[in-house]
Design goal:
Length: 424
Amino acid sequence: MYKSMITTDFATVKIKKTLFFGVLILITSFGFAQKNNKIEIGTVDSVFSKVLNENRKVLIHLPKSTRLTGFSKQKYPVLYLLDGDVHFSSVVGMMEQLSEMNGNTLCPEMIIVGIPNTNRGRDLTPTHSDIDPPFVTKDLSEQSGGGEKFAAFLEKELIPFIDSKYPTAPYRTLIGHSFGGLTVMNILTNHTALFNSYIAIDPSMWWDRQNFLKETEAKLRTKDLVNTSLFLGVANTMDENMNLVKVRNDTNVMTKHIRSILDLNDFLGDKKTHLNYQYKYYKDDSHGSVPLIATYDGLRFIFAFNQLKLTIGEQMNFNKAVFSKIEKHYELVSKHLGYKVTLPEAMVNSYGYQSLVSKNNELAGYLFKMNVTNYPESPNTYDSLADFYEANGDKKNAVANYQKVLTLDKDFPETKDKLERLLK
């Protein structure tokens, strides 16, 4: 049921197919939540960590579909974002653009968990490092090496907390930049199954005089990383007179950062680990500017399978063949994500009405009944099915389904009026 597109008298409905194409976009085109004349992109939550002996705040963004009324509740993959206090707003906007705006399906809708820092030098360094000028100062050296405790916090406390409180699906992505990228590589190497996909952005692989890099390569040689994805983004941190060829033979300490990442890429690029891997060098981006574009490219790489590619003609002239294509797409998405992804209720609902207006009653009935089967707790699915029966003159089934709506939601929009009209 969409009040903006369907009247209650289906015998007189005359809606152009082009309107439905617009509706398919409109139902996915509202963004950040608005409340009290303020735009909100998330909320602040917190969990006390026994592992770290401190309270940890987390920033939470939920997809817009969690705010739809009358629809069944969905479960969503989760994106965990290191340095959340820095990158949360940009990644939220990016995710909404890729998964919700203008009908985009470049990424699945995802819950975003931004993890602000309390002691970055402690948590995001996987091992202790002695003083190593100019990068590791005395203060950093003294606090370094808490990465394994931080990993334990993620695994034993934060992830279970998020799973218990929010509608999560069993697919997780971890994103980190600089020391955060170092942490991404540590968790990928030593806690591989904790996440399904990883984005390491200009990671500090020089850490501890490259000893961590050597240990990472040695450990990954023994792992089969099938079904694990990694995107490695690299910034241009070289002087203007240097390039990727020259820097390989450079010994200046200031090029150690990029040389270490290039060494890591050499190792990962041989494909022996079966890792789903992509590397990209950003010639025109610095260490500070690279997170935005690398996050975008990383998400596009990891979720390349998620885009539903329908031509405008297929959307405008929807039929059984087009729907079969959609069903096969979601089978593929389910395979990649590792759990069954049910066809979205709102999408099937829209195509059901499109079929109804096009007088393809067989397909319309099939779609509305499918939604009831897939989402039996949704009042919307029964209301739509009742609309279908009413449009086809089946008063008995229309009444039964409108009554079912009201048992699930006594205030569901328009249903009372439609039921009362039929019972007169």
